[in-house]
Amino acid sequence: MLDEPVTHSGPSRRTLLKFGAAGAAALGLGGARVLEPSLARKGLLSKDGVFEAASMRISDSLYIEAFPTSPLILNPFNDPLPIPQPAKPIPPAVYRNWDHPPGLGKNQQNFISRLDANGDPVVVGGKVQGAGNETHQIPPLFLQTNPPPDPQGTHPPIVYNFSVRSGHHVFTTSQVLPIDDNGQPTVSFDATGRQYPAGTVRTLPPALIWGFADAGLPGTPTATFPGPMINAEYGKPVLVRFQDDITRADLDTNQDFGAPDGSFLTHLHNGHTAPESDGNPHYAMRGNPETGTPTGGPHHEGFTRGSFVDQMYLNWPAGNDFREKQSFFWFHDHRMDHTGANVYKGMVGLYPLYDPGTEFTGAAGPADDGNENSGLHLPGIRTDNGDGSFSVKFDIPLAIFDCSFDDGVTIHKDFHDGQGEFPLAGNPRTHPEWWGLLFHKHFPNHGFVGDIFTVNGTAFPVLTVNRRKYRFRFLDCSVSRIYEFELMTSTKGPKSAVSLGYGGDELDGQYRIEDGQQCMQWTQIATDGGLLPAPIIRDSFELWPAKRREFIVDFTKYLDGTPTQTGDVIWLTNVMKMGTGRMWDSATRFSPDPNYKIPMMKIIIGGVAPDNSQVPASLRPLPKIPPLAQLQATMANRLIFEVQRGSAGGELEWLINGKPFDPFHELVSLQNPAGQSLPATPKENSFNLWELRNGGGGWVHPIHIHQEEHRDITRNGVFEIDADGNPRVDRGHPDDASREDLAALDPGESVVVYRGFRDFVGPYVAHCHNLLHEDHAMMFGWSIIR
């Protein structure tokens, strides 16, 4: 029997094929012939493309996936866009008096609480019992009254205290109409399970989240989504204490997702950070198997309730090379096996990173310190807050996130239920008492994509802008979804997909501007790896999970040169249709759908404001890499890592080089053209070539390697650099010409990347950032050795 909402009808991803394995195989092979004309558009036109297309059909038939249809938001584009404000640092006089103040000594970096038989922290005399076992690897000098000069030229760290705790988040203040997947009004429920008849207009209950709370604020702040933002600077290290304050009451009401024991592991993506501050399972789980002595980490998938860890972010570029500086990080949970669930539950924070350096030719003053009156003159007006933090006006982070709300009639059932991880949920069953709360499924075949799209935690927000230039920092913090964004105008304005006659997966995003027309361009200034060598003018851009992209938008004029007027409306519009987490259905690069234009944010043109910002002709130069001939000579010795579908199912569904994640051992490369299978153990301060392959099956995979950024040398065997090592632009992946920390792999693609392993030693990980894939073993450990 299919797990599907009893009120739903019509085929969609929520009701997959009713075939056994033999029938599925026949359907898959036959389906490949049906799909063949569209293989090129789907990125499957390769020697294995037909078989990959068949694999899509076969695997679809083996999984039963049921997802709810979120209620229709009736009054969109009324809630203001939340603009994150900087977190509040902890004064030295305060943190020096903590029970366990930050320190540089052995085992002073963390505190691992002792737990009783119920998994609760042991408390004696009002104090949680436990011990630490981590030590900062390369700390700056700090926590002294008069610190001597630091040989690294760093500043004493600015200290923050972030508590992992629960909270309640409102995604929209609008009333909603419960609908089924045909868009028809349907029944709804409240927290007691009471049923409301179809057509009843409701208000969504606040969503229960686990997230980061800024404990530097007065009182007892609750978690927010997104969480706190740190405006950081190169040359000024940051120390963040992350403390797990999830309570037993939180565990009792956690629905059926999030780490069952309330543990967390925070990763600054992609900070140039030592392993003990990186928040990765390869470090957290490891000890010395021969001596039994700990080498750091909680020796658990994450830090348990009552525990804390001090993460040191040196804000120091790799190799102390100014060309390696970055500009926008984010931090998120990385708890082994439940990363996707914890991120989806709210463990997301922002970390813009500014550059006060003056290394740029012709830069008068700090290059990029948030002040548009000097340096590169990028948009931003900085205000120092007197406590080590600062705000920057006209420089706005935009965290993009999709979700779904429970309809009370969709059965909760997935692989984890058989393990008894959420016994209070009583699954498999429906949960009418959770109507309107966040719905999550740990183990969908394709990944998890929601039907509500949000910006900074708000569905359909409104941003009023002045007639001047702005800097937007985009982050995709969705667990699986890819977006493609354009700036559009619309005469008719948004219409609900329901009113336009759509149903099923076509309801995703809820509203459309079918008459939308591009009205402005994006001036891209940065990617994952920081500022580009020079700005790139783009009509649209793709945003993959975990990627960051930064743009300047000039709100004084339109694409045709005509000036904007006060009261004009522009729509931030998603034009990528993605009905499942496998890959897009339509996008500009592949079979675009002219009617799929989802308005995600309403931008209203306001009054004129002073603007001293500029679009510089050049930004930051790329680090030098070896010339093409030298790279070609070493290509045969590259390490090769192939991401692929596993055959075992369950927790071993997604593999790399045919193996699931092993936190205790480094992965070994596939045999390279030189006939070697080498372990992933690069030497400190070395540079290597790694090949990342998408093993097929019709999936896209965003592959993230911790610790440093890389340069793409080849894509699908074609070199993307010239004889001198300068980049050539790939039209399908223009960001390949920059530094990145995540390789976007279309179906069947491969890239060879060149990257360094500098400044630190110890274990790290690489993984797919479709977090449902990562949580089911698509991750591998590697280590920097001396």
Please give a structural write-up.
This protein is mostly beta strands and 786 residues long. It folds into three domains: 92-170 and 206-354, Cupredoxins -  blue copper proteins (Immunoglobulin-like, Sandwich); 367-385 and 393-404 and 439-619, Immunoglobulin-like, CATH 2.60.40; 628-784, Sandwich (Immunoglobulin-like), CATH 2.60.40. The protein has eight helices and 45 strands. A seven-stranded mixed beta sheet has the order 22-21-20-24-32-29-30, with no helix packed on it. Strands 35, 36, 37, 39, 40, 41 and 43 form a seven-stranded mixed beta sheet that branches. A hairpin with an 8-residue loop joins strand 35 and strand 36 (654-656). Helix 1 (21-35) runs antiparallel to helix 2. The model is unreliable at 1-39 and 142-152 (pLDDT under 50).
Strand order of the largest sheet: 22-21-20-24-32-29-30
Distance from N terminus to C terminus (CA atoms, Å) equals: 56 Å
Task: Could you tell me the CATH topology label of the largest domain.
Answer: Immunoglobulin-like
Strand fraction: 25-35%
Name the assembly state.
Answer: single chain
What CATH architecture label of the largest domain applies?
Answer: Sandwich
> Which structural class best describes the helix and strand composition?
mainly beta
Total strands: 45
The coarse silhouette is globular
Q: What is the C-level CATH assignment of the largest domain? A: Mainly Beta
Fourth CATH level, the homologous superfamily of the largest domain? Cupredoxins -  blue copper proteins
